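Input structure tokens:
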């Protein structure tokens, strides 16, 4: 493999997993992360498509939140929180679930809150709708990651961060992009080409968080890494690591699935760690 350019800094990637509505309990994936030495974990209040499974913020009482915080600290696990999909800033900037998300993140000692980019009304409108979220996360001293969906492309992120920088009143230093690899792979203009997607994101857009899963360009199947196209051909992931090195990435990479068997997460973590070691 070609070496990384001397001026490039090896990316710092803390690999972890996420809660899942398909898990047997809210804490099962977290307990798995602790048992298998993962370095990050993301709590995602999500009821699933049926609305009958999963969990919501209120399902974790204060004692449980404190226990999670202490356990994560004892095992060197960085915690992040994914805002519920029921929170849409454009529809309701001060939706009660925003306070619930921030409260959960604060109680857990999370370093970052993640939510989806919405461009239905343009970049400036989303910046304005995001104002309460920007202010609350800044006040709490945590980062805010804006995630790409299958409907938002590089131009959308370039426009959003340009509008954010132009707004002199909105706190912005703590805001960056969450690159969702599987979603990038499904965006029409860059279907099956997530590296092309990433290359079209302006260098001025800070990437601070990763959601890692893959697909065959057909649907958002959330396949664990190395079980889809990268199983036999990891060139895309190698290129991703090199791109992240150029951007001096320092953040968490969340494996967004709860597969059966869950050991597939350990295999993905170990293979990705091997790639990072080889490239670094």
């Amino acid at each position: 493999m070609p070496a990384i350019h001397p001026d490039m800094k090896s990316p710092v990637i803390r690999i972890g997993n996420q809660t899942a509505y398909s898990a047997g309990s809210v804490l099962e994936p977290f307990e798995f992360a602790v048992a298998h030495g993962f370095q990050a974990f993301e709590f995602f209040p999500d009821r699933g498509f049926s609305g009958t499974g999963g969990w919501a913020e209120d399902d974790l009482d204060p004692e449980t939140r404190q226990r999670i915080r202490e356990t994560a600290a004892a095992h060197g696990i960085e915690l992040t929180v994914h805002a519920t999909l029921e929170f849409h800033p454009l529809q309701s900037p001060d939706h009660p679930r925003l306070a619930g998300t921030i409260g959960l993140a604060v109680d857990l000692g999370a370093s970052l809150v993640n939510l989806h980019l919405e461009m239905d009304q343009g970049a400036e409108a989303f910046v304005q709708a995001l104002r309460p979220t920007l202010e609350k996360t800044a006040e709490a001293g945590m980062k805010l990651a804006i995630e790409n969906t299958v409907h938002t492309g590089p131009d959308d992120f370039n426009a959003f961060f340009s509008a954010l920088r132009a707004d002199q009143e909105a706190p912005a230093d703590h805001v960056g992009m969450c690159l969702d690899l599987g979603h990038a792979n499904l965006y029409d203009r860059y279907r099956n080409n997530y590296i092309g997607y990433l290359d079209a994101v302006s260098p001025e857009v800070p990437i601070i968080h990763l959601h890692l899963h893959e697909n065959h360009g057909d649907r958002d199947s959330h396949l664990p890494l190395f079980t889809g196209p990268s199983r036999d051909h990891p060139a895309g992931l190698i290129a991703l690591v090199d791109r992240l090195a150029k951007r001096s990435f320092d953040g968490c990479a969340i494996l967004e699935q709860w597969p059966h068997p869950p050991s597939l997460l350990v295999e993905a973590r170990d293979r990705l760690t091997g790639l990072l070691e080889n490239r670094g």
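The chain has ten helices and eight strands. The domain at 12-279 is CATH 3.20.20.150 (TIM Barrel).
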